[in-house]
Amino acid sequence: MVDRELSLETLGALIETAVMPVILLEGRRSIPPDEYGNAFAVAEFLATRFQNALFRSGNATGSDEAFSEGIAGVDASRLQAIAPYKTHRLKARFEGATYAYPDALTLDQRHQLVAKTVSASPKTSSLMGQLGKKGPVAAKADYLLRDTMKVVGFSQEFPKATAALFYVDLDSPMDGGTGHTIRVCQKEGIPVFFQSEWKQWIEA
User: Fold this and answer.
1) Which phi and psi (to 5°) does residue 128 adopt?
2) In 3D, which of 188, 26, 29, 167 has the Cα closest to residue 120?
3) Per-residue pLDDT at 4 exceeds 60
4) Rg (the chain; Cα; Å)
């Protein structure tokens, strides 16, 4: 069994020592209603407990939306969302939150993030060559770059993440874009918590 207090103590220590702490919150788009409620609840809990922290997600449906709703209910101004493009899910956005996009990257930053993307997921090397082009394959490249950007950051306002919470398929957590984002976190030395850990933080 996960030690609830130790995990929270670990996260708290990371938050306390960071100059500008950022907790990444995201995961699978497919999330059952009860787990949606848990993701909302833990985000609300963290936003209340760590009032100096910022929270970052990806503007997607499912886990991202559940976590973001929990943060926005406490203080939307501490919510950062990195979307793959400027018109992504405009009607589902949270008033007061800050949104950013890969087009904010300089050319050097873009090259660095592409390198980090390929380092975390080597099979994407040819895919990343499609960046800037049109079509469904190029769109996948844009989304992967965005996923790396969420972790690594790109500016003083959007620094590197301090820790990350994910809702995953516990039988296969490293699949898809969520798995890629987890690998980037691991490469960057960012502690990762799955629901098997963070759900205990909100259980009596």
Assistant:
1) -65, -20
2) 188
3) no
4) 16
Per the structure block, which two tokens stand in for 150?
Answer: 């969420």
For the chain, domains (ranges, CATH) are 4-101+154-202 (3.40.50.450)
Q: In what order do the strands lie in the sheet with 22-27?
A: 98-100, 79-82, 54-57, 22-27, 163-167, 192-194
Residue pair 119/156 in contact by the 8 Å Cβ criterion: no
Report phi then psi at 36, rounded to 5: -60, -45
Burial of 182 (0-12, 13-18, 19+ CB in 10 A): buried
This prediction has a pTM of 0.92
Q: Using CA atoms, how far apart are residues 25 and 55, in angstroms rounded to an integer?
A: 7
CA end-to-end span of the chain: 15
Task: Quote the CA–CA distance of 49 and 45 in Å, as a whole number.
Answer: 6
Contacts of 55 (CB under 8 A, 6+ apart): 22, 23, 24, 25, 43, 46, 47, 67, 68, 71, 78, 79, 80
What pLDDT, in 10s, does the model give residues 31-45? 999 999 999 999 999
pLDDT tens per residue across span 104-123: 999 999 999 999 999 999 99
**Between 71 and 3, the higher pLDDT residue:** 71
Predicted pLDDT of residue 2: 47
Q: Which two tokens stand for residue 52?
A: 């100096």
